[in-house]
Design brief:
By secondary structure, this protein is an all-alpha fold. It has one domain. 68% of the residues lie in helices and 0% in strands. α1 packs parallel to α3, α2 runs parallel beside α4 and α3 runs antiparallel to α4. The radius of gyration is 11 Å and the shape is globular. The chain starts with a helix and ends in an 8-residue tail after the last helix. The mean pLDDT is 93.
Length: 76
């Protein structure tokens, strides 16, 4: 469980890092979906604090899908 939390934190950091290219940040958000409900706090943080609308929308979409119990694939 500790390793999963570390992975979630690392992916969140990548998604929030304005020095990284957009595709890296998008893929970090995609990778968070592997953790399903456990990723919701991280996705909410990204949704609220990211500097890019496209990332905010991506996080919001995954939040909605996870909360609805939808199957999520890592590609949109």
């Amino acid at each position: 469980m500790e390793r999963e939390q570390s992975a979630i934190e690392l992916l969140t950091d990548i998604a929030m890092d304005g020095a990284r290219v957009l595709v890296e940040r998008q893929r970090a958000i995609d990778a968070l979906t592997l953790f399903h409900e456990r990723a919701l706090p991280a996705l909410r943080k990204i949704e609220k604090k990211t500097d890019m609308d496209v990332l905010r929308e991506r996080a919001r979409l995954y939040i909605q899908r996870i909360e609805a119990g939808a199957a999520i694939s890592m590609t949109l």
